[in-house]
Amino acid sequence: MNFTINGKEYTLKFGMAFLNELDEKYKMKMDGGIEFSMGMKFALPYLKAGNITALHNVLCAALKPKGVHPQAVEEELERIAEEDAEKDTDRIGELFEEVLEAMGKQPLLRKEFSQLEAAEKQAAKN
Q: Which of 20, 34, 39, 89 is buried deepest, with most CB atoms within 10 A?
């Protein structure tokens, strides 16, 4: 998947560097100060819920190896959101779908996606 910032197209990379970056962003603290990295376990449900901060975090993690600054990603997301409001479009919604689809095709992420889908099915049954 590609993402364009200021007219320049970047290919998103959902590999080990991506996973490590998300693990740094999403941590859970337990009693006693123990921290667990929960990158994909937190990012996926947030993305599916349409959380714009999660979209920003995922895009930044996927673009970090390309040297893209988080501020540039933030500005592009704000530009898209403003354009959506002006033109009554939903490019942000489409971007969520595109990112989730691209992530779901990545070999390193498939297990997380299948676990989330199983949890969603179980929750729907209850």
A: 39
CB 27 within 8 A of CB 35: yes
Does pTM surpass 0.70?
yes
Give the position of tokens 């920003």: 56
- Per residue, the 3-state secondary structure of 62-87, as one string, reads HHHHHCCCHHHHHHHHHHHHHHHHHH
26: DSSP letter: S
Q: What is the per-residue pLDDT across 14-43, written as a single tens digit (0 to 9) for each?
A: 999 999 999 999 888 888 888 888 888 899
- Pick the closest to residue 49 from 104, 96, 116 (CA basis): 96
User: E strands within the chain?
Assistant: 2-5, 8-11, 27-29, 35-37
